[in-house]
Specification:
This protein is an alpha/beta fold. The chain is built from six helices and five strands. A five-stranded parallel beta sheet has the order 2-1-3-4-5, with helices on both faces.
Length: 149
């Protein structure tokens, strides 16, 4: 068995690297949104032309980023969505909802501080983890049927 895993959510910590490195040796392919914050914010105007209005600036970027996000989520077997401590990631909540609507296996990753705010998102998930290594343990269990040592 193999898994295609889409890693969505906050881009300010190395949680993706921890999951990818921890999954070495597992039959897993990872995809994610563009994690260069500046590129993600400015791709629309860099490609399609400047916008004097911030709303249209952001909209151009969001629509171009959505091409990658939709493809990644639609092709994923498992979608992992990380909610970080520093910012409110409304886009991550949208990705979680989109994945749930598509019937994707959904793993949510966040700390205790977000339990109440994310209760509906958590309820749609098949697992709610607090640490990246727990996501790795889930992937290992799903693929190999082995528990953490």
């Amino acid at each position: 068995m193999s898994l295609n895993v889409y890693l969505s959510g906050e881009i300010h910590t190395d949680w993706r690297d921890q999951i990818i490195e921890g999954s070495a040796g597992l039959n897993v392919t990872f995809n994610s949104p563009v994690t260069d914050h500046g590129a993600s914010d400015d791709c629309g105007v860099a490609i399609l032309g400047e916008e004097p209005n911030k709303f249209w600036h952001d909209r151009k970027g969001a629509q171009i980023n959505a091409i990658r996000t939709r493809k990644g989520i639609e092709e994923a077997d498992v979608v992992v969505v990380r909610f970080g401590e520093k910012y409110k990631q409304w886009n991550a909540a949208f990705d979680a909802g989109y994945a749930a609507a598509l019937g994707k296996s959904l793993i949510i990753l966040h700390g205790d501080d977000h339990q109440h705010a994310l209760k509906e998102v958590d309820a749609a998930a098949l697992a709610v983890a607090q640490e990246p290594h727990q996501v790795v343990d889930i992937l290992r269990y799903v693929l190999q049927g082995t528990l953490p040592a």
